[in-house]
TrEMBL record:
EC number(s) from the headed UniProt entry: 6.1.1.16
Localization, UniProt: Cytoplasm
Residue ranges of coiled coil: none
Positions of transmembrane segments: none
Binding-site list for ATP: 290
HAMAP family per the UniProt record, alphabetical: Cys_tRNA_synth
SMART domains per record: DALR_2
Taxonomic lineage from the root: Bacteria, Pseudomonadati, Bacteroidota, Flavobacteriia, Flavobacteriales
Domain named Cysteinyl-tRNA synthetase class Ia DALR: residues: 374-437
Gene: cysS
Protein name: Cysteine--tRNA ligase
Cofactor: Zn(2+)
Main location: cytoplasm
Organism annotation: Flavobacterium fructosi
């Protein structure tokens, strides 16, 4: 029997404002879409926290033995500065300022995004589509919306008619808004806009002559609206109706609200069963902002190259720190907080390392089954990682009692306990034992250097067959040797 059948998972649904029992559309399968980064700058720490929340959610579904299709997009066109419909594309602006091709900007910051997430031990999504790779799909959706009478063309641009849509649907349901209040609190259009109503949003924008990023369409050479791309990519890979859509709290309005409207206009049905939103990260009690200097990049935490923290911290320590707060809670990042998290992380890793030293007994004095279920109960309660961490430290207490001989476990219970606590720490929370990694890297370097010396001796003895065999087998393992005047070095 699959593990998910024995666990009842509840998810806080932003659409209903309540925790709801998770029931997938197709039993044993989960379809999850998460709004990815706009790749015009280095990924910031708030982004990392949001994506980490969904990485843990992804990991827990996999742990429960669901088959998961996790789609996380890359926005590489259409995201206008200040999240509005008029103005300059964020990527195009960056390209103009740095005198680069837009796709050079996209490539640079996509690589940075992947490097940072790899450092923080994220699992890759099942699919990572790009907005520019789905222009055709976006154009087809626009055609459908126009045919339904909810989209209109004006001077080469196409807009979504929110007022028309709201006659039969509820625009604002996700964010708790209603159209009457929005219209009442908006100034009348001054005649310079092509929109019929202030709340209408762009599906397609006609490109100005100086705009670099443009594609042909039935309406103009232009580019798609930011909201449209997620509708196109989510429905292409997950269908018109899927389980979970996630993102940062800041995307709830207007981005996710517009996504719902586009989907409902096209298909006549609600696209997503569970909307999930991760909360923001503050720094020293204030909002993170590059403009004020109250900002730190993930890479600066790892290198210590910053003026905010007292030293460098490993990615696993930073990950452990972030998971000590629930994903829907605001989390404040500070030097004191991450120093305290490092102490807790090391205590947990030391306890897990000592598991192999524990001996079994003829009877058990600890209720491992109840403890294990309490770990599941924490994650089943809307992925409550701080409660899970508290249960892991209850497990640390067990380990210490077992080491002191004050409690005992049978061989079966000891194996169950050891497997469970490591699964929750490493597989579900995604932590790594940095000490073991350091030892592993040292051993790897020592082993490769020994083989390099053996290869040198083989070459000195003119045993070129052995020399070539050592080199070729290292290459097969992903280790490249480089011979130079000062000796042989290697790269992985």
């Amino acid at each position: 029997m699959h593990l998910y059948k024995s666990q009842t998972l509840k998810i806080y649904n932003s659409l209903s404002g309540e925790k709801e029992t998770f029931k997938p559309i197709h039993e044993g399968n989960v379809g999850m879409y998460v709004c990815g980064p706009t790749v015009y700058s280095n990924v910031h720490l708030g982004n990392v926290r949001t994506f980490m929340s969904f990485d843990v959610i992804f990991r827990y579904f996999l742990h429960l033995e669901y088959k998961v299709r996790y789609v996380r997009n890359i926005t590489d066109v259409g995201h206008i500065v200040d999240d509005v419909d008029e103005g300059e594309d964020k990527i195009a602006k960056k390209a103009r300022l740095e005198q680069l091709e837009p796709m050079e900007v996209v490539q640079r910051y996509t690589v940075d995004f992947h490097d940072i997430l790899n450092a923080f031990n994220f699992l890759p999504p099942s699919i990572e589509p790009t907005a520019t790779g789905h222009i055709i799909e976006q154009i087809e959706i626009i055609k459908t919306i126009i045919d339904k009478g909810i989209g209109y063309e004006a001077n080469g641009s196409v807009y979504f008619d929110v007022v028309k849509f709201n006659e039969t649907n509820h625009y604002g349901r996700l964010s708790g808004r209603n159209i009457e209040d929005m219209l009442a609190n908006t100034r009348d259009l001054d005649g310079q806009s092509d929109k019929r109503n202030p709340q209408d949003f762009a599906l397609w924008k006609k490109a100005e002559p100086q705009h670099i990023m443009r594609w042909p369409s039935p309406w103009s050479d232009g580019f798609p609206g930011w909201h449209l791309e997620c509708t196109a990519m989510s429905t292409k890979y997950l269908g018109n109706h899927f389980d979970i859509h996630g993102g940062g709290m800041d995307l709830k309005f207007p981005h996710h609200e517009c996504e719902i409207a586009q989907n409902e206009a096209c298909t006549g049905q609600t696209p997503v069963n569970y909307w999930m939103h991760a909360n923001m990260l503050t720094l020293n009690g204030k909002k993170m902002a590059k403009s004020t200097g109250n900002n730190i990049l993930p890479r600066e935490i790892l290198t210590g190259d910053n003026s905010i923290l007292s030293k460098a911290f490993s990615a696993s320590v930073a990950r452990f720190f972030m998971l000590q707060a629930h994903y829907r809670s605001i989390l404040d990042f500070s030097d004191d907080a991450i120093v305290a998290a490092e102490k807790g992380y090391k205590r947990l890793m030391e306890a897990l390392e000592s598991l192999k030293e524990l001996d079994s007994s003829s009877n058990s004095t600890l209720d491992i089954a109840s403890w294990k279920q309490s770990c599941y109960d924490a994650m089943n309660d809307d992925f409550n990682t701080p409660i899970l961490i508290a249960q892991l430290f209850e497990g640390v207490r067990f380990i210490n009692l077992l080491k002191e001989g004050k409690e005992t476990l049978t061989a079966t219970d000891l194996k169950t306990f050891s497997t469970a606590i490591q699964a929750f720490a490493f597989d579900v929370l995604g932590l790594k034992d940095e000490k073991l990694l350091d030892i592993s890297n040292d051993k790897l370097e020592g082993t490769v250097n020994m083989l390099i010396e053996m290869r040198k001796q083989a070459r000195d003895n003119k045993n070129f067959a052995l020399s070539d065999q050592i080199r070729d087998q290292l290459i097969a393992l992903g280790i490249q040797l480089k011979d130079g005047k000062e000796g042989t070095t290697f790269t992985i």
